[in-house]
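Hypothesis: this fold can be encoded by more than one sequence.
Test: take the structure tokens below, design a sequence, compare later.
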């Protein structure tokens, strides 16, 4: 960053589009101004004993977060990005857990939120933590900053991730990890000083932070930023930002592209120019082939090219990116036999029914990573075309989770077993996938796989298949998972929009019949109101959390149609057995 400030001086590093009013002026931050602000903030952190310790960053969307994050790096502190207290889906309890787990020495926020953050700290019972409104120019002095002594293995930040199937854990990202992954991203995207990035993702999320905000600095480019709420309220604003600022690289999870397909009108498409867009990165798991194809077709009249679609794969544990689509190639689609895929084989689909469309997540550059597909039980490498757990090794891979040595030995130092012995040092991703001709296909999550009657069922396949069954499900989320009484039983918690005269029992019956027909499995159905299904900050369904909420009777159920085994599980060990399926309506 220091040499970027000297070389690029008055070039805009970032432009933030407030979006609170239609005529709100864009806020600009040059490389020189960012350097000066980061030094000022770093000097305050150094003076208050935060150098070498963890600093919690709690900011609304905007440029103050960027200044504070770079200020932490300048101070030799370990940044801990997180959402503001009370922001998004009951994050406050999770945030308190992060505060305690990370052993935070200081908190940076802005003036508007400093009173609320201070009150939250008092309520949490944590003492001895300094709070600073980093947008106050009187706090710190750039001339008092001292360059810290860091090594490549010094921690840059902790990336706390809720994940789809686990409690929040802080991934330790070193300066070596960060620089290695920025290089890997640059190799895939072909980015440079003329690259213009565009982002609406939260700054505390790895795809927004590493893939957009920091990558723009890494290559000396510029970046247009907007708040997530601006996109969610009016998805067209993302595309207008790309059009207006000539953005060349911009990405989102799969749901972001879906939202554009549903809510951008033909009249709005006619006003857009997306011809500058070179990489439309799609990093959600799983990536829907239907979404990728539909987006390219829908926005072709605005200059969007099919080869711009760039599915990719990665996670916080690898800093961010593992694989991606090379510039100009476009995505690879593969129609496979769904039954064979359930048995762990990638085969061409036979004529007729039983096909599943996959989209590849790109290729792995050998200079950045080694990737293997491994039998998660026997720990032997799988041949090409066989499904297994994705294991990764490379300079971008974190050394592990903060203060989790036992978990780190299991997850970050796994060994592939062969006749020659054990090859250690591999990251177990927990994702299922398959390699074919160098292309990586991600097929699901190991911990979320459902086994019914000897068949593997991917929960996202059930969720996806139910969505188009009825208009009441349109735009609503579902969470499929299993509950276990010695045998797995499939459950779907499905949001729906209730209309006058609508019969929830009929909806449940329709879902049950469809799942039995398509998946040869009985499915208990729980209908809930919109916004009930919990998601991570990147839009991934938190299926394990939804299972817990159901089992603990903490869901506001509108109607449910349950198999007797599921009823008995929900009733607990003291209740007597129920003879048949149960249907009940609430509220």
């Amino acid at each position: 960053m220091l040499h970027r400030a000297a070389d690029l001086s008055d070039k805009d590093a970032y432009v933030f589009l407030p979006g609170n009013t239609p005529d709100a002026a864009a806020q600009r931050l040059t490389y020189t101004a960012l350097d000066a602000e980061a030094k000022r903030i770093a000097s305050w952190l150094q003076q208050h004993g935060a150098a070498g310790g963890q600093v919690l960053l709690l900011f609304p969307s905007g440029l103050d977060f960027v200044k504070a994050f770079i200020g932490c790096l300048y101070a030799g502190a370990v940044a801990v990005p997180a959402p503001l207290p009370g922001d998004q889906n009951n994050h406050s309890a999770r945030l308190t857990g992060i505060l305690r787990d990370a052993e935070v020495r200081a908190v940076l926020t802005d003036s508007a939120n400093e009173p609320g953050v201070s009150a939250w700290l008092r309520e949490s019972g944590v003492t001895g933590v300094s709070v600073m409104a980093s947008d106050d120019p009187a706090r710190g002095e750039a001339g008092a900053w001292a360059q810290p002594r860091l090594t490549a293995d010094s921690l840059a930040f902790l990336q706390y991730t809720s994940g789809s199937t686990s409690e929040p854990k802080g991934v330790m990202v070193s300066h070596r990890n960060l620089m290695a992954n920025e290089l890997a991203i640059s190799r895939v995207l072909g980015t440079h000083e003329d690259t213009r990035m565009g982002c609406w993702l939260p700054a505390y999320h790895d795809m927004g932070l590493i893939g957009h905000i920091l990558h723009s600095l890494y290559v000396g480019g510029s970046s247009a930023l907007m708040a997530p709420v601006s996109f969610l309220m009016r998805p067209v604003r993302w595309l207008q930002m790309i059009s207006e600022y000539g953005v060349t690289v911009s990405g989102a999870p799969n749901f972001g592209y879906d939202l554009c397909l549903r809510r951008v009108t033909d009249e709005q498409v006619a006003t857009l120019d997306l011809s500058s867009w070179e990489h439309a990165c799609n990093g959600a798991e799983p990536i829907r082939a239907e979404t990728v194809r539909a987006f390219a077709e829908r926005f072709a009249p605005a200059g969007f090219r099919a080869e711009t679609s760039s599915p990719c794969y990665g996670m916080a544990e690898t800093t961010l990116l593992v694989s991606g689509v090379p510039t100009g190639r476009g995505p690879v689609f593969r129609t496979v036999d769904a039954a064979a895929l359930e048995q762990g084989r990638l085969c061409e689909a036979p004529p007729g029914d039983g096909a599943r469309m996959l989209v590849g997540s790109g290729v792995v550059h050998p200079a950045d990573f080694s990737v293997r597909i491994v039998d998660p039980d026997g720990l032997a490498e799988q041949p090409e075309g066989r499904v297994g757990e994705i294991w990764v090794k490379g300079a971008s891979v974190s050394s592990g989770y903060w203060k989790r040595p036992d978990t780190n030995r299991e997850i970050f130092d796994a060994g592939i077993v062969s006749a020659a012995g054990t090859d250690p040092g591999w990251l177990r991703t927990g994702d299922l996938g398959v390699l074919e001709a160098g292309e990586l296909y991600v097929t699901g999550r190991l911990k979320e796989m459902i086994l019914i009657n000897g068949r593997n069922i991917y929960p996202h396949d059930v969720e996806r298949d139910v969505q188009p069954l009825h208009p009441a499900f349109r735009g609503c989320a579902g969470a499929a998972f299993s509950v276990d009484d010695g045998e797995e039983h499939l459950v779907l918690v499905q949001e729906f929009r209730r209309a006058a005269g609508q019969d929830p029992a009929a909806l449940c019956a329709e879902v049950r019949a469809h799942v039995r027909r398509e998946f040869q499995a009985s499915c208990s159905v729980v209908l809930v109101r919109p916004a009930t299904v919990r998601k991570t900050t990147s839009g991934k369904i938190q299926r394990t959390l939804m299972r817990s909420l159901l089992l603990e009777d903490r869901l506001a159920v509108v109607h449910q149609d349950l198999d007797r085994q599921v009823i008995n599980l929900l009733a607990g060990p003291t209740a007597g057995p129920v003879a048949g399926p149960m249907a009940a309506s609430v509220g």
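The chain has 18 helices and 28 strands. The radius of gyration is 24 Å.
Hypothesis status: open.
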